[in-house]
Prior knowledge:
Layout: H1 12-15, H2 21-32, E1 39-41, H3 44-49, E2 63-66, H4 70-83, E3 87-90, E4 105-108, E5 116-120, E6 125-128, H5 134-141, E7 146-147, H6 160-166, H7 173-176, E8 183-189, E9 195-201, H8 203-212, H9 217-226, H10 231-237, H11 250-253, E10 260-261, H12 262-266, E11 275-282, E12 284-285, E13 289-297, H13 300-305, H14 307-310, E14 317-322, H15 323-328, H16 335-342, E15 350-358, H17 361-376, E16 383-387, H18 390-401, H19 403-409, E17 415-416, H20 430-443, E18 450-453, E19 458-461, E20 464-465, H21 470-473, H22 476-489, H23 507-526, H24 556-560, H25 572-576, H26 594-599, H27 606-622, H28 626-641, H29 648-652, H30 659-670, H31 679-693, H32 697-705, H33 707-717, H34 730-736, E21 740-741, E22 753-756, H35 761-764, H36 766-776, E23 783-785, H37 793-797, H38 804-819, E24 824-827, H39 830-837, E25 849-851, H40 852-858, E26 865-866, E27 871-875, H41 878-883, H42 886-897, E28 901-905, H43 923-932, H44 934-939, E29 944-947, H45 950-960, H46 967-974, E30 980-981
Parallel strand pairs: 2-4, 3-4, 21-23, 22-23, 22-24, 24-25, 27-28, 27-29
Antiparallel strand pairs: 1-2, 5-6, 6-11, 7-12, 8-9, 8-11, 9-10, 13-15, 13-16, 14-15, 14-18, 17-20, 18-19, 26-30
Helix pairs in contact: 2-4, 8-9, 9-23, 16-18, 20-22, 27-28, 34-36, 36-46, 40-42
Amino acid sequence: MVExxxxxxxxxxxALGAPDPGALARFRADLAVSEFAGGVRFxxxxxxxxATDNSxxxxxxxxxLEPRDADDLALxxxxxxxxxxAVTPRGGGxxxxxxxxxxxxxxxxxxxxxxxxxxxxxxxxxxxxxxxVLDRLNTWLRPHGWMFAPSVSTASRATIGGMxxxxxxxxxxxxxxxxxxxxxxVDVVLADGRHATLRDIDANEVAAAIAEGGPLAAVLSxxxxxxxxxxxxxxxxxxxxxxxxxxxxxxxTAHKDGGLRLTKLFAGSEGTLAVAASIELSLTRLPxxxxxxxxxxxxxxxxxxxxPGLLPADPEAVEFLxxxxxxxxxxxxAWVDLEAFIGSLSEMxxxxxxxxxxxxxxxxxxxxxxxxxxxxxxxACRGCAVSSDPGVVAAMSRFRQDAVGLLSRGVDGRQGxxxxxxxxxxxxxxxxxxxxxxxxxxxxxxxYGMFGHADAGCVHVRPMLDMTRAEDRSLIRPISxxxxxxxxxxxxxxxxxxxxxxxxxxLEAYFGAGLHLYLRQIKSAFDPEGxxxxxxxxxxxxxxxxxxxxxEVPFRGVRDAEISDDAAPAFRGAIRCNGNGGCxxxxxxxxxCPSYKATGDRMQSPKGRAALIREWLYQTETNSNPEAxxxxxxxxxxxxxxxxxxxxxSSQCPVRIDIPxxxxxxxxxxxxxxxRPRRDLLIQALEPATILAAHFPSVSRQVMRFGAARxxxxxxxxxxDLPAFPRQPLSAAMRDAGALPLRSEADVAxxxxxxxxxxxxxxxxxxxxxxxxxxxxxxxDKVYFTPPLKNGKALxxxxxxxxxxxIRAALVAKLQDWSQTGAKLVSIEPAFTMLLxxxxxxxxxxxxxxxxxxxxNTHRDRLPIARMTTQFRMVGHCTETSAIPEHLxxxxxxxxxxxxxxDPVRSGCCGMAGLWGHEAEHRNLSRQIYGLAWxxxxxxxxxxxxxxxxxxxxxxxxxxxxxxxxPVQVLASELTxxxxxx
Length: 982
């Protein structure tokens, strides 16, 4: 068994840099009068939101600083040095081992230090800020024909600074190497606040820099004196494998000519040596074409045994997946594009996913043919599927990236837990290593899923644990020790690519006492007082404290266990949040999470809100500090006020954290002892009042156009830019469309259509319902329509829950009565459709309620064909697109059947989200969200842009002055009697 040696004294929280209160007060005072221009956050909410990462730990920092540039960074670190305050850099916060958790000050570079460029397109180099997200960088580089090659599964939120900190690698590392292989230079700030540049330097430069006594003199002297005599020991210690021993990478730091590769030493050091301020990268030419092959086997062992036989085909990467991951993957958005591709192979027990690339389709096809041929030579292969279709290739990549999140969902109250998830061994040992790894977990009776980089020998495993249970927490130590010992016996590492963090306690076991002592000397040369990310990797010689231990750093589950089952049911999702950071996705076209995308504030994200909910529950339950509970409650209330309740998190979060539902429950509880805003009085009457007003649209329209009435609404209730009532009531619009009012269920025959009039379209846009009725007339002789139906959505969003069950019970009763006629129930407005399918899923179980595009797509062969082929673009409602991404493809199929061209686009959230965008205090943020992606689409000067959501169309009219049409309005217009071909 691996013996873990530690030195020094103290407990983990102190080791992780918790400051003396007096020193912290002096630091804050100095910072306040300095020229520091970035964000300064000592509020409880920011500290709570930064107390967790994607690990099992919980360590609140003393505060969070968000520097704007290198000078800000240096100033903060200079003041911190003056007062002995520990600092730890943080990027995407996706670390699985507590790498960026600290009791000291967090330096969050992701908020502002996000510049890209300059780019040298000839040499293939680029300079970036440490806070730049990998996917954003590669999107920026794509038009120039370049990419940053290391490909990690968290690419949507992982920052380049974080990738440097862990020397990240990911898929394709056997071809492209690690981050450090692409690191040309790093401008850093040292522990005392001085600037320095780390790069490759030759022997003469080393000697000159030592003689000059510059900021790196002590470091260079330590390396120049110590590395030459240790080369044999380093060669014996460092495994000869793709993953290697990074942090500190002694093997690759010493150059053959006597020079030093300082970037190799810095990469993987996890913020313990210096803090990156600007990073220069070498780039890789972007392949023009890609292809994938999915090979199926009876089980994972047979799949892994087949890997060596595939390597002669020269794949760019070979990944493996077990059946647990693939079965869970059926619930991901990527499955829509993969189901036909994978087909019957989805029932197998183990898989290899190989990716190839080339400059031509023929080259890619040749690679795939060779892969299939090599696989066919192996009797264990039960089947394969290949494709060079860009959509399938992209979907397969997304599916593989989603694997970590899939395991995090878990089963039976347990979820995939990161603590031994990235062990790596030489590929030749992988089959035996995986078999023995499985035996360790099986002996404990644990469920788990496995996947990883088969060509690099790296295994990702997340055992299913419930960290609120003491018996599950007690498994962290024995399993970690057993896996560390197993990896060492197979010539590998317990940490293959996700960094060490608090697992630094195993460093001495791997490096040996001599090299471990030298690591401490290097740490001393960079950071003699041990203030940079203390408690991680090593402590400097003579430094106080010691490296944190994996079972001494506070577990998040211990605090969660204090929350009683009686208090938790409505908020169970917040406790399930594992901090994976999927909600930090950089791309504005992805629906989750609009408030975070617009503000960059981690408190305004599902992860931040979940952390605040957990803390509020903990403080409320323990009742040890009523003032703290009240303070956290206020922070939570403020954070939730910017939540649009768009529900994208409930679909796109890997563990499906439903913040809007918890927001409603919190507001209901909070306002039992806190006064409600006057706006809530309006909301209680809003739905019945607008339905009544819709019966007299001309009068209501004139009242709402009267300036004084609008001012009353804005000043009294804080609502603005309310939608206008139509010129024509619903009954008249539907009569003109040939639809019949639903007066009695006896009038309706089976297979006829009942069009559900929701309280959005039925009140404010009856013309859309009328157009839908015209379209449905192509499918059936009779289309009936209901009066506007109350649904209680606005009440729920504001936590006015007492009347919601009554309203929804009445709605369900009507739906059940109408369903018994055998008619098809059809909903038009996505917000209403998704309400019935999400919030009311239990009540509507057994009822078939079709969305308009579902019924049109099912019967699209009955649609006439337009005379003129016209092109349109369309964006779906964010709630619907995030939960049912295939609805965009259905709309395209409907338009194609009608002889029209439709290009569906993803554009994230429009920023309206029902009443939220009309609340006066949110108007600016609403506009900011609209400007992320929607504005460019709406104001583009080419094909007409369509929108399925009522709120979306309202937002476009408000901020761009454009009247967007619903797709059914286009179909009704293009397919009129005089305009279509028989």
